[in-house]
Amino acid sequence: MRSIDRREALRALGAPAVVPLLSHFHPAVPQQEGGWKPLLLADGEVETIAQLAERIIPATDTPGARQALVHQYIDFALSRAEPERRARFRDGLAWLDRRARALFGSPFAALDPVRQDELLGRLAATPSSEEPAGAAFFAEARQLTIDGYYRSEAASTQELGFEGRTFLAEFKGCTHPEHHAWKVGE
Amino acid sequence: MSDVVVIGSGASGGMAAFNLAQKGVKVLLLDAGEEFDRRFFWTHTLPYQADARLRKGDEPPRFFLDKVEQSYLTPEGKPFDLVRVWGRGGKTNVWGRVSLRMSDLDFGAAERDGWGIPWPIRYSDIAPYYDKAEQLMGVCGGTDDSDVLPGSKVLMPAPPPRCGEVFLKKACDKLGLAMVAGRRANFTRPHRGFPPCHYCGACGQGCDTGSFFNSADHLIPQALETGNLEIRANAVVARILVDANGRASAVQYFDRKTGAERQVKARVVILGASAMDSTRILLNSKSARFPNGLGNGSDQLGRNFCEQIMVHVRGFLPQLYGRGYTNDDGIGGEHVYLPRFNHRPDRPKPDYLRGFGMQFWNTGAQTTGADVAQYLPGFGASFKAEVKKRYPALVSLHPFGEVLPRPENRVTVDESRTDRYGVPLMKVDVAFGDNERKMRKHMYDTCEEILHTLGAEIVTIDREANDPPGSAIHEHGTCRMGKDPKTSVLNSFNQMHEVGNVFVVDGSAFPNSSEKNPTLSIVALSWRATDFLAEELRAGRL
Question: Is residue B268 part of a domain?
């Protein structure tokens, strides 16, 4: 169940393998445009995480993480997280800046995207050549970015073209002519 | 005074109230929570819309019981995930809806392999009730019929398969595995005054049109219409009290809002509080006559816990890469099912007892895309493109395997630790064993075989992993039925051997779990037990 469609919810419920930061329904992005104020992070941290998220899922012909307001999602999600997890994440942001300075002489947000990608590439490599704390921070930031981006309206409509969760009179099933070989129920 | 006090309003208690009230029996139903109002379900709230609503302070219905409000104990290092819904309809508000008939492979398992005790009934005893239950519950499905999964002539039409499911079927055909249409209590036709399923796929949020079977919409209202049912909400039952003759005489409960203690007299008590809570109530019902819990002279009450072990394997089908979004929501879960096959003479003899079936929820583009992205490595524009390419191509394999009943896997109550009402907490002490680990290997092997047959990219598997005990949300065995009062708690009509006016109609009555989702069988057994009970009342034997 854990929805009960264990899953689906459940669990029952279709529970994801990676438990989202906010359990059940909650990954709650209070997405606001103008006048947004972070709940947890300092302005400098917000800019760092916004740039980091944008490198993980950049704008292409569709919006990237910044346009999807992923930094706002991460701030909100962390504001509801356990204190240890918040502290760990913020330590990770500080670690990222220290490492950026050591390698390239500037904090992460001041680097150009090529340098940023180079640093993230070192963190994403398996096995990572960087400190375990840095690799763990990247994994967490990546997961938060994925959660925030793909639940956003921008990703849902423009990137993936999602049209579900609606009212259909009929469910058609697979509509690819070459794949439609099995009439279920017989 | 009511004739019968029913504890719990879900599949089992709801059916008991439904059947008895319609037979003219006066029923008082004690429900540990309140009604959930369909008008406020978030069935059609998209993730980003949910965000905006939460921002405004709006909240989705709280179906799941808070583990802080009502906790339970587990030994160090032995986690157990207990999911409870306290409120009108119980877990049927958000259940998985998979509705599979058990067969004599399940009812006769103990005779064949010697593990556990035999069921006191056979398929022929329950088959008429399966027919009635499937019609009432609006189960859809196919025309298949096998020794594992007996056929049915009363099912609504099955919905067509998603693309990924078409491929899974092709793979199973090649491997000689007989995949069939799923059977689910989603209405694919209008049913009993309710509209058919509208294929939004969000059943887990509760259905805002009442288009899948749930006790709150499809059992309780009909029972209320008879005028024979009274419901008392927020009544958290603690104990069943007995008279000098050792018969149940009253039910003690606490008001969930005020904490006040109350007692109601009872001629007959039916427990349908779900396996773990019914067991807790009986274990806490101690008296001079029953020092170890009501009707527990056999010391079997609380023992022999069983359920299913689950693993999850995911892959991406290259055949579907880049095909773009298709609406794969359907009736929520998978539209196909792979019944147990390991017992068949053409398969190698397994090195473990019992078997597993396989379900496939979350196959196709049913999710936000995070479910794809989290399984892919990397970052950047190429990562984003890889996610999009695979979005329609996700297939998810979820084997469910029977966990053997063992006396040491058990529920007890701890007198030294009490809940907010001063009632001893339950302690759940459960671990999987060697049989489950051997079966788990076969589960992973089968998933890999299916995916290899399709040339799928398989998401990295940790073959030592499985969901923790409790995750199936299919608890059984702790109040089992059987012929012999020395080894069982209930007789073949869910009546306590030692206390004739107490019946237990939920999943705790199953001597073994089978690999199948139990709700259909629970409804059928509760129907059968309360037919018997009504006749006993009519004949003046209770």
Answer: yes
The partner residue sitting opposite A150, judged by closest CB among B94, B328, B373, is B373
CA atoms within 13 A on the CB side of A51: 21
Distance CA B322, CA B85 (A): 40
- When divided into structural domains, chain B yields a total of 2
Nearest to A156 among B141, B161, B368 (CB): B368
Cα–Cα distance, B453 to B457 (Å, whole number): 11
Q: Which residue has the higher pLDDT, B430 or A17?
A: B430
Task: Identify whether B135 is part of a domain.
Answer: no
- Interface contact A124-B377, CB threshold 8 A: yes
Considering the domain architecture, whether residues B342 and B451 belong to the same structural domain is answered as yes
- Pick B336's closest partner by Cβ from A149, A183, A184: A184
Question: What 3-state class would DSSP assign to B508?
Answer: helix
Q: Are residues B442 and B495 in the same domain?
A: no
CA distance A13 to chain B (A): 6
| DSSP code of residue B12 | H
Residues B390 and B493 both lie in one domain: no
* Inter-chain CB proximity A12 and B51 less than 8 Å: no
Q: Domain extents for chain A? A: 24-164
Q: Are residues B511 and B382 in the same domain?
A: no
For the packed helices A70-79 and A43-56, what is the interaxial angle rounded to 10 degrees? 120
Residue B15 lies in domain: 1-42+60-120+223-307+405-431+474-542
pTM, entire model: 0.93
- Give residue B532's pLDDT band: very low, low, confident or very high (50, 70, 90): very high
Residue whose tokens read 């274990």: B283
Residues of A in contact with B186 (CB under 8 A): none
| Alpha-carbon gap: A87 to the closest alpha carbon of chain B (Å) | 23
Rounded percentage of chain B residues whose pLDDT exceeds 90: 96
Task: Say whether A57 and B368 touch across the interface (CB within 8 A).
Answer: no
B110 shares a domain with B19: yes
